[in-house]
Amino acid sequence: MKALILAGGFGTRLRPISCTRPKILFQIINKPLLQWTFERLAKNNITEAILAVNHQTEVYIKQRRIAKCGVKVKYSRDPLGKPLGTGGPIKKAEKLVGHDSPFLVLNGDIFADLSYAEILNRHQKEKAVATIALHEVKDPSRYGVVELAEGNRIKRFIEKPPRKAAPSNLINAGIYVLSPRIFSYIPEGKAVSIEREIFPRLADEGTLYGYALEGLWMDIGKPEEYLEINRTLLDSLANRQEQSKIPTVEIKFPAVLGRGVSIGKNSIVGPHVVLGDDVAVGSNVRIKDCVILPNVMIGDFSSLNGAIIGEGATIGKRVTIEKGCIIGDYAKINNGVSLARNVSVCPAKEISESVLTSKLVI
User: Fold this and answer.
1) Does residue 170 carry a pLDDT above 90?
2) Is this structure's pTM higher than 0.90?
């Protein structure tokens, strides 16, 4: 069985962090999302993955040299300047996928813990053209929503309906098993939405089925969701973490510290903090509920709460960064600056004065 990973999106809701990396390379507990995916594929004995990417994403992935966990990786590239949507990349990868057996399709910005073997078995049993993993949410209006008939057949598939018009709370979890017959439904060389154009047609034909997903599932498409998946996985580690061995520093678990991290005296880190590799934290610093990417420097007496700090950023002394702030890679926040809630700072931008209203600083 082969897996096709859809990784051609631009992550617009995660800017400015996504200005310098695709979503599939966002670090979750100091490990890129793509590596989590490779590990899960290997665990399910899937040995070949095809990455459907744009040119820029392919370059970023190859630069990172992510551990592939024994999975053989090939690339299927969108034409330059011509995104193919969610269905077009599936058709584009037809030759690499082949027609021998069903294949797995994964949205690249989904973190989910499930058995791929189980959804494959269900797909083959029903002789489906497509089987969609389903997850129950409180607000389905952001997703494709299904109405199930008897035997897990999907009676209706509606992409992003108004909340009151949604037929259920079961949503498309971004994980599919597809029969090679799917290729005949997708026109070649054009942008196609599999959710709006293909799945409703399959539902009408009675060849679209659902598989209820139990366990952890999260979309990391928004900053708060990215923080939440890190928080959730940190909670799963809480009972296995040892007392901090750094003298004069208080680590409030759950927290994860990468390689080469240094923390000055009287600083308090945690709970729910991820410090990337080679992060340098000064003295008397307070960090809570944050994801700090590698090579960040944080000056003495600074306070960070509920923020995402991009790779290589410099945070000066006596800086205050409030909830919802996102600091782009290699940005510099000078001494004494305060950033109010939901301030975003573009990559490599230098901030010398406090920003006291929610805004994007370009």
Assistant:
1) no
2) no
